[in-house]
Write a structure and sequence with these properties.
This protein has five helices and 14 strands. It is an alpha+beta fold. Helix 1 (36-43) packs across helix 2.
C-alpha cells in the first residue's frame, strides 16, 4: 500500500492503460470469500478460475493503489480493484471510425456499424473507446452516452475529468438534441410528426427490452424525411435514453427498423439480417456548457439499406 499524506486529500488512483485497454474497476461485494481470487471467480462465473489465476500471476489485477494483487491477497468487502479484460481470438472489426471534433474537453467520433462503443462481451481492443485512447494517448476519455453496437453515428466523449460533469448534465437534464435517421417500412395510416410515449422494461432474453403497462418512462418524436414504395426514411428524436428505445418504439408502431435482428421478434441464428441495422445517430446539437457556444455535429455516414 502506498503511504498517504494526511495533509493532502485522498485522490482516486488512476489505473494505467495497458495495450490500449483501460482497466475495469470493481468494488468487491459482500460475501464469504477468503481471497480476492475467490471473490472474482464467484463474481464472474463465465471466467474460469484458471484464467483469473493467470491474470493475477501476470499482474493484470491491481489493488486500489495500483499494486498487483497476489493469489492469496485477502478478500475485504468494499475494496476496489482494477482488472484488464482479455478475450481469446477477439474478432477484428475492419470498419474505421471518423473524428468529427476534438479539443481539450470534448471528442466527437463518428462510429461505423458493428463497432462497440466500450469493451463488452467478446470485444475489448476492437471498441471505439479503446481505439480513441490509443489514437489520442488520453486514458481520461470517457463516453458521455452510448449507442448500440449495431447503430452507426455520433458519440461524444469527455476528454477532461475537470469538465466532465458539466457535459454529463447535458444528457441528464435533456439539454442536448439528438436526431437519428432510420429506414423502416411505411406507416401510411399514421399522421406525422408523432410522439411515442411508453414504459420500457427489461424483456426476454435478458438483452432485449419491451413495452409494458405502467407510467411512461420513455419518449420519442418521430417524423418522416422521405417516402419510397417499400421503405420510408424516418427522423427519430429521443427525449429519454432507454436501452434500445428507438428500436422498441419503431417496432411497436408497426415499422421495425430495417435489418433489426431483435425487434419485434428475436431472429434465429440462421435467419441473419441482409445488412447492418439501418439506424444512424445523425446529429447532435447543444449549447456548450463551458462557453455557451451553439454546437452542432453531423455524421458523415449514410443509410443505404444495403449490406
Amino acid at each position: 500500500m502506498r503511504p498517504t499524506d494526511p495533509a493532502r486529500p485522498h485522490t482516486r488512483f488512476r489505473f494505467p492503460v495497458r495495450d490500449g485497454v483501460p482497466a475495469s474497476r470493481l468494488q468487491l461485494p459482500p460475501g464469504p470469500w477468503a481471497t480476492v481470487l475467490d471473490a472474482l471467480v464467484a463474481r464472474f462465473p463465465q471466467v474460469s478460475e484458471a484464467t483469473w489465476r493467470a491474470r493475477i500471476e501476470r499482474g493484470r489485477v491491481l489493488d486500489a493503489d495500483g499494486a498487483p494483487i497476489l493469489l492469496d491477497t485477502p478478500y475485504r468487502v468494499g475494496a476496489e480493484i482494477g482488472y484488464y479484460r482479455e478475450v481469446d481470438d477477439e474478432p477484428v472489426i475492419e470498419a474505421v471510425e471518423r473524428i468529427v471534433h476534438a479539443d481539450a474537453h470534448l471528442v466527437v467520433a463518428d462510429k461505423p456499424h458493428g463497432l462497440p462503443v466500450a469493451p463488452t462481451g467478446t470485444f475489448v481492443t476492437q471498441t471505439l473507446l479503446t481505439r480513441l485512447i490509443a489514437r489520442f494517448g488520453n486514458p481520461d476519455l470517457v463516453p458521455l452516452h452510448r449507442i448500440d453496437r449495431g447503430t452507426a453515428g455520433l458519440v461524444l466523449f469527455s476528454a477532461d475529468p475537470a469538465s466532465r460533469a458539466r457535459y454529463q448534465a447535458l444528457f441528464r437534464e435533456s439539454r442536448i438534441v439528438k436526431t437519428y435517421e432510420a429506414l423502416a417500412p411505411p406507416l401510411p395510416n399514421l399522421a406525422f410528426p408523432l410522439t411515442r410515449c411508453s414504459r420500457i422494461e427489461r424483456g426476454e432474453p435478458f438483452f432485449r427490452m419491451r413495452e409494458a403497462d405502467g407510467p411512461p418512462n420513455s419518449e420519442t418524436h418521430v417524423d418522416v424525411l422521405a417516402r419510397d414504395v417499400h421503405t420510408w426514411r424516418y427522423a427519430l428524436s429521443p427525449v429519454s435514453g432507454r436501452k434500445h428505445q428507438l428500436r422498441v418504439h419503431m417496432a411497436a408502431l408497426g415499422a421495425p427498423i430495417l435489418h433489426d435482428p431483435w425487434y419485434p421478434v428475436l431472429r434465429e441464428a440462421d435467419d441473419a439480417p441482409a445488412g447492418p441495422l439501418q439506424l444512424l445517430a445523425r446529429r447532435l446539437a447543444f449549447d456548450d456548457p463551458l462557453d455557451g457556444r451553439a454546437r452542432v455535429f453531423e455524421s458523415g455516414f449514410a443509410l443505404t439499406g444495403r449490406r
